Amino acid sequence: MINFDDIFKQIKESTHTIHAIVSPLASNDLANVLLSLNQAPILAEYYKEVYEVTKNSHALLINLGTLNQSKLMGIKEGLKSAKENNIPIILDPVGASATKVRLETSLYYLKNYPIKVLKGNYSEIYSIYHKKLTTSGVDAKNIAKEEIIKICQDLATMYNTIVVASGKEDIISDGKETLLLKNGSPLLPKVTGTGCILGGIIAAAYSFEKNLNAIALAISILNIGAELAIKDKGMATFKISLLDQISLIDSKTIEERIIYEKL
C-alpha cells in the first residue's frame, strides 16, 4: 500500500506557489482547489511578467486550453524561465489529438524543454506518441488499456518524463515503474475543467515530491473526492460537492479507499 502521510502533511503544512497558465473556463475552480489544499495559485499569462512569476514559483503548469497568440507568448516566457531557473514544468496538452497546432506545439515543448510531467487523456497521449490527430474535439476516444499503458511507458523513456494518461482508469509511468489507478466517478468527465483541476493538483503535489507517489496522491484527491461527492441531485450539486470533498479529504480516507495496481 502506498503511504501518502508524509507528502499529504507537507501539502497541508507548507504553501507552494503554483504558476498555472490555463483555460479561463477552469481558472477559477483550479485556483479555489489549490487554495483549499493550502497552496498559492497565480495565473499570470501576460508575457512581460510571466518570466518573473515563474522564477518565483515552485511549479509551472502549462495547459493548452483556449489558445491564442498572446497566451502562446506568455507560455514561451514561462517555459524559458522554468528551464533557466530549474522550475518543474507540468504540460497538459489539451486538444493535442484534435488540431495540428496543438499537437505540433506539444511536441515542440517536449523536445525543447525539460517537461517533468506530461498529463493528458488517452487520445492526447496516443496522438503525441504517434504524432497524428485522432479526434475532432478535446474528449478521449476509446483506446485499449494495454496499448495506452505501453505508450505511456515508451513516452516516459523517450522524453525522460512522467506520463499521466487519464481515463476510466488512470495510468502513471516514469518508464520504469507504472501505476494503474482505478478510483473515480463517471460524472467527472461531465464537469468542465476537471482535467485542468487535476493538472493543478498534480503540479502542487509534484512540487513537494518529484515521484510517482505524489502524482498518485494528486489523482486520488480528485477521484476519491468525486466518489464521495453528492451524485443524485444534479450536476451543479455534484460539482460543488466535489470541491467540498477535495477540501475536506485526508490521507487516511485516501489510503482506505484507493484502488490501484502496480504493473
Average pLDDT over all residues: 94
Strand order of the largest sheet: 2-1-3-4-5-6-7-8-9
Helical element count? 11
**DSSP E strands, number:** 9
Report the sheet with the most strands, covering strand number, pairing sense and barrel closure: 9 strands, mixed
Indicate the overall shape: globular
InterPro entries: Hyethyz_kinase, Ribokinase-like
GO molecular function, one term: hydroxyethylthiazole kinase activity
Pfam family, one: HK
Keywords: ATP-binding, Kinase, Magnesium, Metal-binding, Nucleotide-binding, Thiamine biosynthesis, Transferase
Describe the structure.
A nine-stranded mixed sheet has the order 2-1-3-4-5-6-7-8-9, sandwiched between helices. The two termini are 14 Å apart. The model has no long low-confidence stretch (mean pLDDT 94). The chain is α/β, with parallel strands linked by helices. It is globular and about 40 Å long. Helix 2 (27-36) runs parallel beside helix 8 and helix 8 (194-208) crosses helix 9. The protein has eleven helices and nine strands.
Entry keywords:
globular, single chain, 15% strand, 263 residues, Hydroxyethylthiazole kinase, Hyethyz_kinase, transferase, Ribokinase-like, alpha/beta, nine-stranded mixed beta sheet, metal-binding
